[in-house]
């Protein structure tokens, strides 16, 4: 790959001026582009170049990230640059990178929190839990992205969370967004939070997403909630279940499993 004049990469790290090189790479984004595809190509190129910087530049890279976070509300370009820097820092496992990522999640200037939640999983650190919970509680996304932050944050908690946060997740079994409900049920199943069983049982008849209904049934069988049998039998006779053979099979199997539990088999 050909690089712009003046950019010195890792094989000459001992002689390079890290600040100048990083500024040069980021400056490549300060151009007009004809299409999103062209912009994506340029972003990927800059990302590759940042990843090839010598280890000696990591501290300077972190300083750039801190500055860009403070200026992230100035323009979309600043946000793009900050995300590139943060991604590079995460790949390097640079000390301070996780704290910078957490700061982005907590910042009022940052709106697209989902990008930073994705990076949180790179660190797999429980130190991110408070920031993820904050993201869940403050998410007010609407439109096509409604619930996306809540969904991604709960998914991330499956990787870095503990059952101690279960009481916060349980109410999201009834979230207005189907993918959030699904993520919440999966989290509760993973950490075996049986206290969630009554909430899931209560929600069962209101769940209209086929995949989530299967999640609910699996959870109720897992926690041996035989009290849900009458409701499941009623669900089995409903029109939308009857017309979906795969879902009909899942509901039938759930009923059989709970009946077996009821009989002590």
From TrEMBL:
<dbReference type="InterPro" id="IPR016024">
    <property type="entry name" value="ARM-type_fold"/>
</dbReference>
<protein>
    <submittedName>
        <fullName>HEAT repeat domain-containing protein</fullName>
    </submittedName>
</protein>
<dbReference type="InterPro" id="IPR011989">
    <property type="entry name" value="ARM-like"/>
</dbReference>
<dbReference type="Pfam" id="PF13646">
    <property type="entry name" value="HEAT_2"/>
</dbReference>
């Amino acid at each position: 790959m050909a690089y712009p004049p003046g950019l010195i990469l890792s094989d000459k790290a001992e002689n390079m001026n890290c600040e100048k090189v990083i500024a040069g790479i980021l400056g490549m984004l300060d151009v007009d582009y004809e299409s999103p595809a062209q912009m994506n190509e340029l972003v990927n190129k800059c990302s590759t170049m940042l990843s090839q910087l010598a280890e000696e530049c990591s501290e300077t890279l972190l300083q750039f990230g801190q500055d860009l976070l403070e200026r992230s509300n100035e323009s979309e370009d600043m946000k793009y640059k900050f995300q590139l820097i943060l991604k590079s820092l995460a790949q390097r496992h640079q000390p301070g990178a996780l704290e910078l990522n957490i700061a982005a999640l907590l910042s009022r200037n940052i709106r697209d929190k989902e990008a930073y939640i994705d990076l949180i999983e790179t660190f797999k650190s429980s130190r991110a839990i408070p920031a993820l919970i904050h993201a869940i509680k403050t998410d007010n996304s609407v439109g096509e992205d409604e619930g996306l932050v809540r969904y991604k944050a709960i998914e991330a908690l499956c990787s870095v969370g503990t059952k101690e946060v279960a009481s916060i997740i349980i109410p999201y079994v009834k979230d207005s967004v189907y993918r959030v409900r699904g993520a919440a049920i999966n989290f509760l199943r993973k950490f075996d939070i049986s206290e969630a069983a009554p909430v899931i049982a209560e929600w069962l008849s209101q769940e209209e997403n086929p995949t989530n209904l299967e999640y609910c049934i699996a959870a109720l069988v897992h926690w041996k909630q035989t009290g849900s049998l009458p409701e499941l039998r009623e669900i089995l006779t409903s029109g939308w279940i009857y017309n979906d053979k795969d879902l009909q099979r899942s509901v039938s199997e759930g009923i059989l499993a709970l009946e077996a539990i009821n009989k002590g088999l």
